[in-house]
Amino acid sequence: MRVIVVGAGILGASTAYHLARAGAEVVVVDAIHQGKATLAGAGIICPWASKLDEPAWLRLSFASARYYPDLAAALAEAGEANNGYRRVGALITADDPAEFDAAEQRILARRGNAPEAGDVRRLANAEARALFPPFRDDLPAIHIEGAARVEARAFSAAMMNVATTNGAIYRNERTSLRLEKDRATCLGADGRPIEGDVVIVTAGAWAPEILGPLGVNLKIAPQKGQILHLGLGGTDTKDWPVLLPMNSYYMLAFDDSRVVVGATRENGSGFDYRVTAGGQKEVLDFALAYAPGLKHATLIETRVGFRPAGPSFLPMLGPVEGVRGLLVGNGLGAGGLTLGPMSGRLLAECALGQKTALDLADYAPRA
């Protein structure tokens, strides 16, 4: 079987990886757009604290968190040990004591179905600051042992490297689709067909433009996120846990004395790639409210990414009704770096006609 994967963010890279490892012929066609979500994002693998309670979302999220360590180990065995994944734990906190207690109860209740979350315990402030030194000095935290971080660029590159080692072909170009007798055909930048039995579109926020000529109206829009990278020169940050207050923001550290703080969720901005004063202020206000110890950090850069946001939190994974040979993976939104690798596995299994690890009925693409 020959499969064309359109888009090589974390979802497309995972799809290509799993297809190539299964022995399929794979062609990945990818345009390097400004604001590709994978290139901007820093991933947090900690779905057990989420306020979302949609059962299908929780099933996929928990399965994704469970799958990450095995996938990271497989990448390392294939020569990609520096893949950006590391289990560092997470600190959950909240200003409102009632919300903090509710978060603890929610996490403990879910742990029964998610042993990979590991030990969950309440920490006094001093204990929390020992793990994440910039943390403010008046809040407790809940420590989730099994939480992890992932550097999206590194993890996606690792999957693509293994895919190409296993025979996948990578083409850096824009592509288009056309309909031929109800079947999707992929065209290269030169307008010539790229032969394949199945086309899988994992093009994120740019997918509606690609799918439009097929009459597929995918309800996906770009949601802009501005993400700050702060430097703490000489500070050993490699073991710092992820910091997750019970709001839409987050903080995590990487091995190079760098702390990443995000992110805005800007709807209706289109593909506006600018770093804005308001966006910078919003994220910095959050950072210094919860980690005042960062006030002397160096502002290294601000990355902008466009999350593919759908009409609900549920992603869209699987065949497109009415178009033969076409699968879509999209709508992962703010959870894309958690959901992407497992979702790519599911798309690959579906394309190959295998039984999928999760039933895709709940995630059918919605036009």
Layout of secondary structure:
Blueprint: E1 2-6, H1 10-21, E2 25-30, H2 37-40, E3 42-45, H3 55-77, E4 85-87, E5 90-93, H4 97-111, E6 120-123, H5 125-131, E7 141-144, E8 148-151, H6 152-165, E9 169-172, E10 176-180, E11 183-187, E12 193-194, E13 198-201, H7 207-211, E14 221-231, E15 242-245, E16 250-254, E17 258-262, H8 277-290, E18 298-309, E19 316-319, E20 326-330, H9 336-351
Helix pairs in contact: 1-6, 1-9, 3-9
What does this structure look like?
The protein is α/β, with parallel strands linked by helices and 367 residues long. The chain has a domain of 158 residues: FAD/NAD(P)-binding domain. A six-stranded mixed sheet has the order 9-2-1-13-20-19. Helix 1 packs parallel to helix 6, helix 1 runs parallel beside helix 9 and helix 3 crosses helix 9. The model has no long low-confidence stretch (mean pLDDT 95).
